[in-house]
Design brief:
Length: 272
């Protein structure tokens, strides 16, 4: 290859790197701006991010105790079982519900040429993922240090399973954000879906102990598989045979692809 040709390639790579660095800076700025905006609106908003899962765990723990349910599931006591399930479900749900909000915020940034709709959506998803990771670490740290539960067998595996749920939340949220532009009433369906997921994701009770004719359908729920993987990596005795991180990521990719296909028409409709 001639020196001139090599020089052209170097310039091309330099341009790509510069574009990537600019995009990362834009996403970081959007995350900071969103964080500052939310903090001004509700100073206790981020305390609620921690309090909400703790309240849910306490409510369901009290209900299961009143019903005289089995206090040990797999090798986890009820408190640890509920905390791993509810935090995992919230990790998916918070990211998925943030994406439509990020889509609406893009209207305020559309006048800036360097800010794209994709940047706004990615910033929303990443900010929520960071916040929920901190919530998970704080909450699980409190549970372990207080003696309410034991440390996970594979901490890295737990974080990897949460990352899969985060990717699923991003893909599903991206798809939802686009659909809501065309069909605003779709938001009512999502409200029902979040309630259904609480009972079909395995967050509050083990659905693998349900009748086989029911479980054979529920096991295809990617959110259940993510929750089950978190518990499988945490537990010393529970080894999941029905859940796969590959399946969760495949579902995430399918939702994201559908969302990307709808993005340009949604942007045109949003800016008219």
């Amino acid at each position: 290859m001639s020196p001139a040709g090599f020089d052209i390639k170097l310039k091309s790579h330099s341009g790509l790197w510069r574009s990537f660095a600019v995009q990362c800076s834009v996403i970081h700025a959007l995350m900071v701006q969103s964080l500052l905006t939310q903090t001004r609106k509700a100073k206790l908003g981020y305390f609620w991010e921690l309090f909400d899962p703790m309240m849910q765990i306490g409510i369901w723990f009290g209900m299961w105790m009143l019903l005289g349910a089995n206090r040990v599931i797999y090798d986890m006591n009820m408190f640890l079982f509920l905390s791993t399930g509810i935090v995992s479900l919230f990790f998916f749900q918070k990211i998925a519900t943030e994406m439509p909000g990020a889509m609406k915020r893009f209207k305020g940034y559309a006048r800036f040429q360097s800010v794209t709709q994709t940047d706004t959506l990615l910033a929303g998803a990443l900010l929520e993922a960071v916040l929920m990771t901190l919530v998970a670490l704080i909450l699980w740290g409190i549970i372990i240090l207080s003696g309410l539960g034991f440390a996970p067998e594979n901490p890295g595996g737990v974080l990897a399973a949460l990352a899969c749920l985060g990717a699923l939340g991003c893909g599903f949220g991206w798809f939802n954000a686009m659909v809501l532009v065309f069909v605003p009433v779709y938001a009512k369906f999502l409200t029902i879906l979040w309630r259904v997921l609480l009972f079909t994701s395995g967050a509050i009770f083990p659905i693998d102990r349900m009748p086989p004719q029911v479980f054979q359908y529920l096991q295809w729920n990617p959110v259940y598989q993510g929750v089950d993987l978190v518990r499988s990596e945490w537990s010393y005795t529970h080894d999941s045979t029905t859940s796969s991180d590959g399946y969760i990521l495949l579902c995430a990719a399918c939702f994201l692809l559908l969302g990307l296909l709808l993005q340009k028409p949604a942007l045109r409709l949003q800016t008219t």
